[in-house]
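step=encode ok
step=design start
structure_in=
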């Protein structure tokens, strides 16, 4: 906190505007609805910086969320997140630095830029002042390009002409627009109605499919066998590989009997959730001529995936679908097949003319400023909704067509939630996604006695996908038992999932999971907060070499992923594998692998201090003590999963103890001697629940 308060002072004098990034052909848009600023209250900012009691300043954050405090509570949480983002970005502040001319830009070398924590983005603004001249001008510079260690900036032209290597002080800021759009969304949220935000009652509406055909005479109850068979006979699916649960989800969403309540598509790892979303969008497009569809995700890559799969269906024309992109997005990152559908600044005002609009949740806020009103879209899909904060998710949801509109939340509440910077925003609930909050309400939650024939969820509200098309049964089984009521079924291509079952380094042939116990040493360098474990680094490389040198099994370097929670361990592993010519192996944190899969996954857990127990142990374990991170880590592999860690440390967490037990039972453990597991207790002294609730994502532990 002191670094923030003693870094370069924010300029208080007059400011010379810089030149924002733009594209050739852009024209200034008329924005009929200006986005308000939603400034952070200074009293709250001071409270955080002085480490005072937040609840005294904003008592609403300790209240249970309800319809009355909904807007004020989320606004306070968003302010807390912004304060921390501001503190983090100010870590980049620089004193007495100079700029180098590169082409039409001025380049600034920024230490720590390559590490990406926090990140500097195209469109971010810096403020430059001359040292010791508090009354002089401040110059705004905008980031136009990012290099490995440099940012390329554009200022006012006079600054470019007069810059002659003089020293300047630099203050970094970030683009507040996504946060402002979240504030706007929670302000508008009350328009959705209390039964959408806090659903307690479901009154089924007439099926949209039946209503569109004006056929009310043959309405059959949805839970009857006749209804199900009729729909299977009449519905023609564009994707012929859909399973029964996927087809049921498509049909239920098209019928829309739960509207305006959100429909949840619960998609555990590898179950084809996005494939189901794409099929549903195509069916709505073809069967409901008056429909308008908004499909959003938290990230550009996930939004591109939806657009790409819709394109490959060959069921849409460029006049049907638009892929909205933020102004600062680099066009080179867009897949080639998606580019014909892309829309940037020069024609965003045409977005309302397309039947299908695809963008990130944050970019959906652009539609508000273009004057597109709530009710414009008949269907709103939020894929990967478990990774978005509730305010972020509500940006697109707020544009649905009132009581007749259908919101669809697709995701997995048992995988990682949104990445947050502030420990305070996490503590008071911003890490809980809209998807997870809803599925834990009485109306949506699992009920085996009432809905045994429908996957244990009310079929009008939830479809849970259970056919896994990713992993070998040995890899799938543990995740299924701990997080999904042992309901996941192996449906993947056995030629892929069984391809390494007889790999020579497996302790148990036919069982492609192994745990390698190492009582190594976790250490840090200098004043770095990040940990690494040399013994585990060496063992990771040994297994990689064992894979690459195996003449019987052809494993490419790009088919292997290494997951580890600490940036320093990532750095050490990359250093070794680059020297060995295995630079295509992806090494990263759990967050970087969510939504991805690899034939082979190696997990290096790093932490090895056996003296840490109880509460202290719980905090030091970092991602290891988080059930969601555990679930994501062990569910990425298709045909081989290797875990490297200290069983004396890991066994003190119930989930990791269960994994060690699982490997021991299947003769898949190797390495150091084992602790007496019967004498160890969980850090909380509690049993592993069937379905863990929530779980904070401790971003600070992946430094």
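sequence_out=
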């Amino acid at each position: 906190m002191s670094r923030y308060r003693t870094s370069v002072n924010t300029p208080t004098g007059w400011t010379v505007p810089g030149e924002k990034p733009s594209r050739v052909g852009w024209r200034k848009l008329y924005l009929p609805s200006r986005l308000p600023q939603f400034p952070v209250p200074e009293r709250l900012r001071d409270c955080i910086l002085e480490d005072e009691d937040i609840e005294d300043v904003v008592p609403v954050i300790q209240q249970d969320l309800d319809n009355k405090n909904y807007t004020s509570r989320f606004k306070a949480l968003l302010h807390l997140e912004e304060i921390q983002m501001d503190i983090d970005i100010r870590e980049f502040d620089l004193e007495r630095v100079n700029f180098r001319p590169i082409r039409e830009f001025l380049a600034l070398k920024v230490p720590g830029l390559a590490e990406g924590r926090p990140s500097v983005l195209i469109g971010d603004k810096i403020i430059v002042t001359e040292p010791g001249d508090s009354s002089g001008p401040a110059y705004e510079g905008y980031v136009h390009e990012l290099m490995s260690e440099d940012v390329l900036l554009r200022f006012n032209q006079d600054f470019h002409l007069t810059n002659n290597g003089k020293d300047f002080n630099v203050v970094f800021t970030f683009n507040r627009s996504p946060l402002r759009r979240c504030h706007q969304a929670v302000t508008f949220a009350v328009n959705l109605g209390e039964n959408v935000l806090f659903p307690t009652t479901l009154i089924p509406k007439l099926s949209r499919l039946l209503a569109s055909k004006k056929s009310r005479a043959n309405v059959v109850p949805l839970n009857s066998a006749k209804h199900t068979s009729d729909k299977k006979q009449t519905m023609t699916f564009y994707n012929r590989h859909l399973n029964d649960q996927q087809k049921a989800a498509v049909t239920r969403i098209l019928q829309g009997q739960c509207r305006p309540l959100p429909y949840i598509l619960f998609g555990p790892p590898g179950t084809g959730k996005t494939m189901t979303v794409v099929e549903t969008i195509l069916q709505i497009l073809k069967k409901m001529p008056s429909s308008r569809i908004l499909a959003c995700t938290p990230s550009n890559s996930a939004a591109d995936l939806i657009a790409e799969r819709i394109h490959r269906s060959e069921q849409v024309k460029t006049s049907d679908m638009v892929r909205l992109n933020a102004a600062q997005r680099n066009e080179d990152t867009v897949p080639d097949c998606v580019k014909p559908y892309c829309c940037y600044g020069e024609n965003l005002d045409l977005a309302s003319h397309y039947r299908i609009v695809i963008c990130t949740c944050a970019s959906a806020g652009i539609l508000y400023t273009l004057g597109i009103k709530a009710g414009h879209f008949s269907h709103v899909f939020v894929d990967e909704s478990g990774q978005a904060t509730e305010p972020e998710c509500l940006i697109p949801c707020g544009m649905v067509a009132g009581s007749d509109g259908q919101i669809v939340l697709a995701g997995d509440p048992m995988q990682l939630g949104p990445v947050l910077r502030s420990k305070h925003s996490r503590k008071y609930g911003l890490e809980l996604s809209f998807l997870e909050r809803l599925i834990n309400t009485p109306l949506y939650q699992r009920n085996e006695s009432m809905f045994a024939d429908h996957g244990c969820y009310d079929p009008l509200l939830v479809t849970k996908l259970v056919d896994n098309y990713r992993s070998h049964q040995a890899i799938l089984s543990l995740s299924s038992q701990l997080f999904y009521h042992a309901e996941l079924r192996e449906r993947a291509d056995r030629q892929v999932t069984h391809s390494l079952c007889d790999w020579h380094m497996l302790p148990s042939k036919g069982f492609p999971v192994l745990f390698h116990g190492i009582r190594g040493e976790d250490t840090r360098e200098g004043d770095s907060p990040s940990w690494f474990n040399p013994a585990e680094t060496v063992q990771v490389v040994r297994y990689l070499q064992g894979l690459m040198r195996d003449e019987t099994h052809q494993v490419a370097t790009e088919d292997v992923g290494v997951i580890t929670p600490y940036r320093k361990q990532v750095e050490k592993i990359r250093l070794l594998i680059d020297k060995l010519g295995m630079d295509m192996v992806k090494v990263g944190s759990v967050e970087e692998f969510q939504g991805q899969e690899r034939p082979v996954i190696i997990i290096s857990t790093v932490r090895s201090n056996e003296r840490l127990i109880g509460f202290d142990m719980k905090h030091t374990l970092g991602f290891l003590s988080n059930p969601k991170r555990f679930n994501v880590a062990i569910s990425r592999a298709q045909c081989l999963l290797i875990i490297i860690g200290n069983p004396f440390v890991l066994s003190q967490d119930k989930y990791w103890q269960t994994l060690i037990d699982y490997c021991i039972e299947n003769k898949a453990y190797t390495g150091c001697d084992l602790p007496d597991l019967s004498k160890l207790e969980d850090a909380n002294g509690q049993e592993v629940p069937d379905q863990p609730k929530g779980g904070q994502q401790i971003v600070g532990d992946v430094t």
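step=design ok
step=annotate ok -> The chain has three domains: 2-175, 226-465, 473-702.
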